[in-house]
Specification:
8 helices, 2 domains, 340 residues, three-stranded antiparallel β-sheet, 11 strands, globular, 42% helix, six-stranded antiparallel β-sheet, Phosphorylase Kinase, domain 1, alpha+beta, Aminoglycoside 3'-phosphotransferase, Chain: A, domain 2
Length: 340
Amino acid sequence: MKPFHALTQIGQGRRLRPVALQVLSEYGIEPTGVQQILEASNIIFRVRTKSSGSYVLRMTSPKSCHGADEIRSEVAWLHAIAEETDIGVPEPVARLDSEYVSQVIVPGASKSIGCALYRWVPGVMLDDRLTENNVRRLGILMARLHEHAAGFEAPEGFHIRTYDSVFPYAAEGFAGIEPVLLFDEGEDPPLADAQRAVYRQVHDLVAAEIEGLMAGRAPLRVIHNDLHVWNVKVDRSKLYALDFEDLMWGHTIQDIATTLYYFRWNDTYETMLAAFRSGYESVSAWPECRDGQLEKLIMGRAILLANYITVSEDSEDRAFAPEYLERVADRLRGFLSQRA
């Protein structure tokens, strides 16, 4: 059997489809249709039923380092948000035995994966409705999540990472670890010497910035940490935040940097930044405490994703890695040149 990581995303979905059907039986769901959604890093299926509406089944990719405890923690925060606010979030669905996470063996993979089921969220992706007004509403959405998180009391067993380094997924004590291979200098290093020097210089600047955040007085709170334009849906007058898988303990400016990373190299960045900030500040004070802090943290996101693609065993990621790593290097050079 071909290793799971050597399959294309469509091939992975085909292999997981019978596993998905078995998982759905644990929820007492008899689907009339199961359709793979390709715009995701995990394997995602939209599940249609005859009488109980539509669902999303998320099957965590084997290359992910998220375990069952983290998924249960995600569910706990989603429940708290739904009970205490009117913020649009997915509704987790419990299995027949009242559990929220299924762990399954993937044929051709080296480890089991966690699966969770959610009610289908209406609307279209924010990426398809990317207006200034909607980006302003995105700022409001993030600020309201931050506002809720400030008063959130984590239940017993709540277990998520802390965004206390450039590479928080390398932290031990979790079901999976994403090793830091970006700076390796072995026989076939991911970066050329000149690239590595640029990455290292920016990494050290970002690391110092995060160290300063962690040493400050502001308390940590739960942050979404992946609220990009493909994780938000627009349904008429309401925005929904999706995919809370990457939530961490962190600072609000780190959450903002993760979101704005996906706008940073667009021609409309300054306009969208102003719109996002306007929305955020209509709810809460802008948390950037010194000039250049946001920009550094955005560069940190770029380096984190560069390591992710370096670590990934997926055939599609490996094929894309050299081009992607040079693209990021070029962006980091631009950042350094602006500081000179």
